[in-house]
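#structure-requests
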Amino acid sequence: MESTSPNHLLILLLLLFFLFFFHCKPTLSISLLPKQALPTKSGYLPVTPTSDSAIFYLFYEAQKPTSPLSQTPLLIWLQGGPGCSSMIGNFLELGPWRVNFRKTPDQPLALEPNPGSWNRIFGLLFLDNPIGTGFSIASKPEEIPRDQTHVARHLFAAITAFIDSDPSFKSRPIYITGESYAGKYAPAIGYHILENPGRVNLTGVAIGNGLTDPAIQVATHAANAYFSGLVNERQKVELERLQSEAVALTEAGNWSAAVAARGRVLQTLQNVTGLATLYDFTRKAPYKDDLVEELLRNDDVKSALGAKRHVVFEVCSDLVDEVLHEDVMKSAKYMVERLVKESRVLLYQGHLDLRDGVVSTEAWVRTLKWEGIEGFLGAEREVWRVNGELAGYVQRWGSLTNAVVLGAGHLVPTDQALNSQAMIEDWVLGKGLFGSAQKENFTTNSLGPMSM
């Protein structure tokens, strides 16, 4: 046998080093997304047969279903914005694995199991909506929807394509859920489904901290901040003046100017309070959605999720926000009015949210044109506990339920994971305080609709 020279040995060691390095590099990178965190299905759903535009989706099957999968409820999550990715909902709020958002700056980014995931007993589908948002594809900027009617058409195409991909999906009860600007997306797609029966087994719609009737909601900020002790009387009067401008411009149909006026209300409120974020007035820093962006700009993570490698992920798209600019102050309340008559509706708010929180929601709900509104307004607001601890308050009548979640801001599942999980599960299953409202809760002394 020939002996190995020192030079040959050195070359051999170098080869072994490079083989080891390049073999391990992808493994180190993909460790950001553990195998257990991979979705059941993912990819793209077409929105029109004449274009390559498509909505990106991630689907997680129920971890511990309590019924056959063909009967297991399916939740569809829509983020707000407009133009913010539902990957925020997935990796920061209610998905099975979340970024370690409590980490210190010197700690590495990582994913952690979420004990409050909404797919514990339900299927969970995240959609990046509208096209151009997150990983979704807009072949041309002009294909991005400019109003809720077109948003709903695209969502309907994507949802029906997803349902058609597996026969077992066709019989599953479907619940549309979402937060913030999805206070319009969710009613829009729910309304569209009711207009096109037979394709989607819609059972309910849940809206968290939603912007649904902007003109009514913008008029609540001054009083809310004042009675929270965050502004004085003079500042309250100034906010009221700005609010009146936003309402007047909305009523005149001057949509772009109305959006700008609402922006002045929120910016003034931000300036005079000095808060880190209006989304939660107790926070010392904003929510860390930048960690989701960092995670999803990793090429190996993108590949593992089935996203197009050429798409540069942004948590929120400025382009989509700009395209939907004139939609912002338009109301979706009439869609909720139909949904509450023909399905079930859950509204929930984190009580620390100053933008689209409790007072804001109650103001527009009082004006609903629905035969059950007097019953709802007269119903008891009951103390809600989870595992014996105070979680918030629940008010319900017939098909409408409203929940206030204590200790939570705009992103309720981020702040109160287990309580938000208990809320959505009990509402879907009709359990506890989220079960059928009792008519004896109604009192004839209820206040009528609030004049705004």
